Amino acid sequence: MGAPENTLAGHLDPARLDEWFDQRFEARMAEREAAHVPSLAIIATKGTLDWAYPPFILASTAGALGWDVSVFFTFYGLELLKKDLKLAISPLGNPSMPMKMPFGPQWLKDINWHVPNLVMAGVPGFEKVATGLMQQTVKNKGVASIDDLRSACLEAEAKLYACQMTVDLFGYSQDAFIPEIEGWIGAASFLSIAQKSDVNLFI
Amino acid sequence: MSTTATQTLDARGMNCPLPILRTKKALASLAKGDTLAVTATDPGSLKDMQAFCKQTGNELVSSSANQGEFAFVIRKS
């Protein structure tokens, strides 16, 4: 802008300084973005077989993508960290859950059984049967078991945290849980993880 | 399936996210520049494999669909 290029005044010319800064800033930001490891933080609060899938599918996949993954298991979600997984489903009060036979000829498999709530609630062992049918369907469709997905998470070094308050609340013993648990933490610790994460999910 | 790939992976019959998890595992054992040929039947794998390669920086050399089967060739980078 009028000032000769190679003089001090030329270098301090505001327009040229702005241009230099913009270029430098762009380059730095691009470097930063390239080096950035994405991170995922999930709060897992449900302890049924169906609800166990979303956190473990997302955590294991993010791990496979090279993301930094943390999952905080709280309330019923703690069931997903037990050594002995005894997860069940309850179709009762869940009108969206298709009730289908995983066995027999195709026409039988295609039927969506509408079971009245009264039957679901009243027949002893109904949930056990429904859980068994769901497990069979999962196997038939080539969907991973929860055990496999949890192992995949651990292999990918996803950090699995347990909520200490829930352990105290329900009177659990830490021995009942898998030894790979990253830590027994509370809300404040999880929030500091969540604050630095790119993706935060409550499941 | 390409016969020139360094390694092959049969992910047929597996459902999301297993094809991706197995692919990741298979790639880990390969050297830079090696190729992995994957076959899958999960229709979601078509988009997922693209996303996986983009995120992990590996090259998706080819991807094709043929009668419910999907074939991918990935070069490790």
Question: Superfamily at the CATH H level of chain A?
Answer: DsrEFH-like
Q: How many strands appear in the DSSP assignment of chain A?
A: 5
The CATH superfamily of chain B is known as TusA-like domain
CATH architecture of chain B: 2-Layer Sandwich
Structural class of chain B: alpha+beta
Strand order of the largest sheet of chain A: 4-3-2-1-5
Helical residue percent of chain A?
40-55%
Number of helices of chain A: 9
How large is the share of residues in beta strands of chain A?
5-15%
CA-CA gap between termini of chain B? 21 Å
**Unreliable stretches of chain B:** none
Strand-residue proportion of chain B: 25-35%
Q: Find the structural class of chain A using helix and strand composition.
A: alpha/beta
Shape type of chain B = globular
Report the major sheet of chain B: 4 strands, mixed
Tell me what the CATH architecture of chain A is: 3-Layer(aba) Sandwich
Describe the structure.
The complex is a heterodimer of chains A (203) and B (77). The model of chain A has no long low-confidence stretch (mean pLDDT 87). Chain A has helices at residues 8-11, 14-35, 49-64, 106-110, 117-122, 126-140, 146-155, 164-170, 187-195, and strands at residues 39-44, 68-73, 159-163, 183-185, 199-202. Chain A has a single domain (37-202), classed as DsrEFH-like (Hypothetical Protein Ychn, Chain: A, 3-Layer(aba) Sandwich). Chain A has 203 residues and is α/β, with parallel strands linked by helices. Chain B has 77 residues and is an alpha+beta fold. Chain B has a single domain (7-76), classed as TusA-like domain (Translation Initiation Factor IF3). Chain B contains two helices and four strands. In chain B, strands 1-2-4-3 form a four-stranded mixed beta sheet, with helices on one face. In chain B, a hairpin with a 2-residue loop joins strand 3 and strand 4. The radius of gyration of chain B is 11 Å and the shape is globular. Chain B starts with 6 loop residues before the first strand and ends with a strand. The mean pLDDT of chain B is 89. Chains A and B meet through helix 3 of A and helix 1 and helix 2 of B. Chain B: InterPro entries: TusA-like, TusA-like_sf. Chain B: Residues 9-33 form the UPF0033 domain. Chain B: Pfam families: TusA (PF01206).
